[in-house]
Design goal:
This protein has 437 residues and is of the alpha+beta class. The chain folds into 3 domains: 207 residues, HUPs (Rossmann fold), CATH 3.40.50.620; 55 residues, Adenine nucleotide alpha hydrolases-like domains (SH3 type barrels, Roll), CATH 2.30.30.280; 122 residues, Translation factors (Elongation Factor Tu (Ef-tu), domain 3), CATH 2.40.30. Helix content is 26%, strand content 22%. The protein is built from 11 helices and 18 strands. The strands form 3 sheets. A 6-stranded antiparallel barrel has the order 12-16-15-14-17-18. The radius of gyration is 23 Å and the shape is globular.
Length: 437
């Protein structure tokens, strides 16, 4: 199907340079084919709950999104997903923080808002053939055959600009939405995007700084913000090695593993090694690279696979690459299926996956999302439930679990299905036993 069969594209405009340039590129490509391009700015947070500074930022973003549409001569509108954000994203964040997890709001927002509520809105209200965003990502489908459900199963690929690649944040996307999504910036570098913004007459946006963090927090600290929704629950900081109290805090939900602690009068830095929500205790170590901060094995929920569904077995590993933070490099990993009988986990936190990392990785944290790759393909993701180092220092998970699940697998000689698998497997060597306590 040629591009002339695409009649309407709805693009999500954040008010930043990326989505504005994405809209300009779409207009340049599809405009000659008389394709309707509509810009939509989403409001996801109730302005009554915003700080003054945050409201200014939100209002400016909306003005910048409108200005981009005015420059391009395309229709512009706004839509509110405040209720959807609260029900599908923010309530989940609060629940996870209270349980001692560290969630990733960007992954949730993309899954449920941009490629959930917004995707359905574009179809229902505008009759869109496809949507578009300013994300740095690619697919393996021909953009000229995009339509709602019309180009078969599609794989999510990493962006050309590795420093800006956003596939980690898109790892929860559903196949239906991916089939009908365009990523115009997937094969571009950020420097090119800013240069194009100037060429398209968007000089102000070309100079605009990238947004960082959760926008509706504004200039407030995360501690002050989350305290409006979760009450203070004081507890001690305990030296993991010596076992004595070294300070106090206002709740484990303010901290995550690997984070530097705020301990009054401390003579040297301390870092969070573990949190116990039941007793509101935070265990800390005095070394940024202490062995207690590094994990080799973790357990996760049932994975969400974007396109192809790997066959996972309990006795044979699936080889792939892993990461859980946007800025880190991928690590070779072995994935094993965990049967319900061996996990014995509670229904609300079902352990379905065991992941063994070839290189011990710092600050792997329950609640974060493990993202899996094969080469340039983002396969999918799974929520991390528990990590080996927490059991090694004496903590128990908030669900029944067979501790044998956390033992590293024996040395593997897996059947290599490809040269790529062989390359991964060469990295998969059991790390030496680490002394923690």
């Amino acid at each position: 199907m040629s591009s002339s069969n695409i009649r309407r594209i709805v693009i999500a405009l954040s008010g930043g340079v990326d989505s504005a340039v994405a809209a300009a590129l779409l207009q340049k490509r599809y405009g000659p084919h008389k394709v309707d391009l509509i810009g939509v700015h989403m409001q996801n947070w109730d302005e009554q709950d915003e700080s003054g500074q945050c409201r200014k930022v939100r209002d400016q973003d909306a003005r910048d999104a409108r200005e981009a549409c005015d420059i391009l001569g395309i229709p512009f509108t706004t839509v509110s997903f405040v209720k959807d954000y609260w029900n599908d994203v923010f309530s989940t964040l609060l629940s996870d923080y209270e349980r001692g997890f560290t969630p990733n709001p960007d992954i949730l927002c993309n899954r449920y808002l941009k490629f959930g509520s917004f995707f359905n809105y574009a179809k229902r209200v505008w009759g869109a053939d496809c949507i578009a965003t300013g994300h740095y990502a690619q697919t393996d489908a021909d953009d000229d055959v995009v339509e709602m459900g019309g180009r078969g199963r599609v794989r999510l690929l990493r962006a050309l600009d590795a420093t800006k690649d956003q596939t980690l944040f898109l790892s929860g996307i559903h196949q239906e939405a991916l089939q009908a999504t365009l990523f115009p910036l997937g094969d571009m570098y950020k420097s090119q995007v800013r240069r194009l913004a100037n060429e398209f007459g968007m000089e102000t946006l070309a100079k605009k700084r990238d947004s960082v963090g959760i926008c509706f927090i504004g200039n407030r600290s995360f501690t002050d913000f989350i305290s409006e929704y979760i009450p203070h629950r004081p507890g001690p900081f305990i030296d993991l090695i010596k076992g004595h109290v070294i300070g106090s805090h206002n709740g484990v939900h303010h901290y995550t593993i690997g984070q530097r602690c705020r301990i009054a009068g401390g003579k040297h830095p301390w870092f969070v090694a573990a949190r116990d929500p039941a007793s509101q205790t935070i265990y800390a170590v005095d070394d940024h690279d202490h062995p207690a901060l590094f994990s080799s094995v973790f357990l996760a929920e049932e994975p969400h696979w974007i396109c192809d569904v790997p066959t996972l077995r309990e006795d044979e590993p699936f080889l792939c690459m892993f990461k859980f933070q946007h800025t880190e490099w991928t690590t070779p990993a072995l994935l094993y299926k965990v049967s319900p009988s061996s996990s014995s986990s509670a229904p609300s936190s079902t352990v379905a996956l065991k992941v063994w990392l070839s290189i011990p990785t710092r600050a792997v944290t329950p609640g974060q999302v493990a993202v899996f790759y094969k080469g340039n393909v983002c396969l999918g993701s799974a929520k991390i439930l528990w990590v080996d180092v927490l059991s090694q220092i004496g903590l128990n998970p908030p669900f029944p679990m067979d501790q044998e699940l956390l033992r590293p697998p024996p040395p593997q000689n897996p059947p290599y299905k490809s040269s790529q698998d062989y390359e991964y497997a060469n990295h998969l060597k059991i790390p030496p036993q680490r002394q923690i306590l």
